[in-house]
Amino acid sequence: MLVYFEFSRVAFLKILSYRLRYFTGILTYFVNVSVYYFIWRSVYSASSDVSGYDLGQIVTYVAVGWIIRSFYFNNIDRDMAAEVMEGKIAINLIKPVDTQLMYLSQTIGESCFRFVMFTLPIAALLCFVYPVRPPATFLSGLLFAMSCLLALFIFALLNFLVGTCALQLQSILGIIRAKYFIMEFMSGLLLPIAFFPRSLQEVMFYLPFQHVSYTPLQIYLGRVAGAAAVRALGIQTVWVAILYLLGRLHWKFSIARLSIQGG
Amino acid sequence: MPIFSRLPGHEGVTVPIIEARNLRKEFRVFKRREGVWGAVRDLFHRDYVTLAAVDGINLNVEEGEFLGYIGPNGAGKSTTIKMMTGILVPTSGEIVAAGLDPYRDRTRYTKTIGVVFGQRTQLWWDIAVIESFKLLRRIYDVSTEDFRQRLGLFGELLGLDELLHTPVRKLSLGQRMRCDIAAALLHYPRIVFLDEPTIGLDVVAKDRIREFLKEINRTMKTTILLTTHDLSDIEELCRRIAIIDRGRLLYDGTLDGLRRRLGRFNQILVHLHDRHSGLQLGQALGSGNGIQWEHLDELTCRIHYNREQVSSAEIIRKIVNQVPVRDIFIEEQPIEEIIKTIYSRGL
User: Fold this and answer.
1) pTM for this model (two decimals)
2) Closest residue on chain B to A91 (Cα)
3) pLDDT tens across A153-178, in order?
4) How far apart are CA B138 and CA A37, in angstroms?
5) Would an 8 Å CB–CB cutoff place A94 in contact with chain B?
6) For residue B82, what is the nearest residue in chain A, using CA coordinates?
7) CA B244, CA B71: separation in Å to the nearest integer?
């Protein structure tokens, strides 16, 4: 098991060697939140309540949504696609390690780095510039933190599932792009799920995407609290288990049909 | 204390360490139609062609052997290696290596092998070499003491010391390859697969790597399987070679055996005394009788002759009797030429 800790450490070191990316990243996140802030402000100039959110809540929703995205985000799918294209996936197969766990532990290392170098400065900046509210209660804050951790796993496992497609399809840039937009939309990052038509909300209830962004944010805002919040964490955990098993199966199935580029 | 100690479990093994029987790997290749209309039709219906990259190979490798596995581009070398390392599943046939099925028992199997792909590195690109080594130490569960000792040894033999704290992306090709080879051997594998490890390297780097491999093979009885296009690698390292083309094994035996079988041509290099002797040489040798000759420059000639038709002694006698020469050298036909003949005409 120690080896997977080592993978996290190496991922941490690796990302450290590209510091510039983080300064530009902070700027990108700030601009994104600013755009949504001005959009929502003009929306709320017409009415003070949209689908049960007031302006203060929606600004908090958007800002905290992007802040936690800076923590859970990763590029496992892109990394895997690149490795398949370069024929580097073979290198993973000649080592006595579990590929899925390897990617997961790398992600954890990367997110630890992101948390310190990325999430904290972005949070500080956004809270300073915009009227972002603190968590509803101390307990909400605590449950929210746990929910974010689970969101990280769901996001990473989904990416692994998508990345594995590269083993058979060779080029999955189209799929990755589609997943990116589905993720932004269905996770509730752009819009709270409550704003969607009821029928769509019902479909999304059975999908894992909203547990990446919407669920932690509901807990943060105190719209889901107490027993309901604990239940939400339970559902997230179930999704982690399901996606973990699906990823394993998909990986096993795919490497049996592998044909490697080059050589 | 011996520098290399043999690993436990190596003694008294008589079965081949790698045994491949009727190994076959097919790839389904999508056949594209031509032109725009063809491309549109491809969207709806695709034709596939099945190609056998490896087409029924039988190969046994004994423990401690240093086998050269050669063949032209696209012959199926890498595909064979990928099956033997457990990356690809054979379409049919079977492999048993170190007592395991490389694909089915992958996790256990990969602990007993080391692999170097010359074209791509297995080190982590952005971090210092030593960090990659530390990670590999964890992956293969090498004790701190063994790790330090092996690192010292490899460092000495491969000259790694000044490289260890450099990120891999800043290494030259030769430096990177030395690190890659060390990385593949850190866990003292029983079998090592080297897929073109000297590709693109300069003479000094090549030499260093060869010396290292020789040493490892000799002292640790590590079984090494090497593919290369550089036949001087083979000449220097391998007692046995296997030649593959179009997925089939063409030759399996010693290099000398191959020479005896195919090296019908010898050559003699003649340094003439003065520039007028060239003509005389031509007259002395005549033509036909399996003799051909070429001028390398005004004062040097190379004579190619078929050993079965004419003896070296006879040619030399003819030359020295009639032409003033300074020097004569008998050369064996270069292995490159023998191999070239096999690639273009078969055995």
Assistant:
1) 0.81
2) B122
3) 999 999 999 999 988 887 788 999 99
4) 48
5) yes
6) A90
7) 5
Q: State the Cα–Cα distance between residues B5 and B10, nearest whole angstrom.
A: 11
Closest-CA residue of chain A to B78? A263
Q: Nearest-CA residue of chain A relative to B180? A: A91
Average pLDDT value for residue range B267-296: 78
A49 touches chain B (CB under 8 A): no
As a whole number of angstroms, the distance between CA A247 and CA B169 comes to 31
- Taking any CB pair shorter than 8 Å as contact, residues of chain B touching chain A are 27, 78-79, 82, 85-89, 106-108, 110-111, 113, 115, 117, 119-120, 122, 124, 126-127, 131-132, 134-135, 138-140, 167, 195
Tell me the sheet residues that pair with B115: B193
**3-state SS class at B223:** strand
DSSP-assigned letters across all residues of B262-279: H--EEEEEEEESSTTHHH
Closest CA to B182 of B205, B204, B151, B203: B151
Contact yes or no for B87 and A18 at CB 8 A: no
Q: How far apart are CA A200 and CA A186, in angstroms?
A: 10
Give the residues of chain A that fall short of pLDDT 50.
Answer: 261-263
User: Any residues with CB less than 8 A from the CB of A43 and at least 6 apart, and which?
Assistant: A50
**Nearest Cα to A75, choosing from A99, A101, A110?**
A110
Query: Nearest CA of chain B to the CA of A68: how many Å?
Result: 26
Say yes or no for a CB contact (<8 Å) between A96 and B127.
no
Q: How far is A184 from chain B (nearest CA, A)?
A: 30
Please check the confidence at residue B39 and state whether its pLDDT lies above 90: no
Cα torsion A178, A179, A180, A182 to 10°: value is 90
Query: Would the ipTM clear 0.90, i.e. be above it?
Result: no
Q: How far apart are the first and last CA of chain B?
A: 48
Tokens for A96?
């006595």
Contacts of B41 (CB under 8 A, 6+ apart): B33
Distance CA B99, CA B83 (A): 15
> How far, in whole angstroms, is CA A154 from its chain's centroid?
7
Q: Which two structure tokens, joined as six digits, stand for B189?
A: 């594998």
Tell me the two tokens of residue B228. 């290369």
Q: How does pLDDT run across A59-101, given as a tens digit for each residue?
A: 999 999 999 999 999 989 998 998 888 777 888 888 898 999 9
Q: Which of A232-236, B45-49, B323-327 is predicted with the least confidence, judged by mean pLDDT?
A: B45-49
